Amino acid sequence: MEDRLIDLHSRVHRGAYQARPSRRVYIPKADGRQRPLGIAALEDKIVQQVLVTILNQIYEIDFKAFLMGSGPVAAHIKRWTR
Question: What is the pLDDT of residue 70?
Answer without folding.
Answer: 55
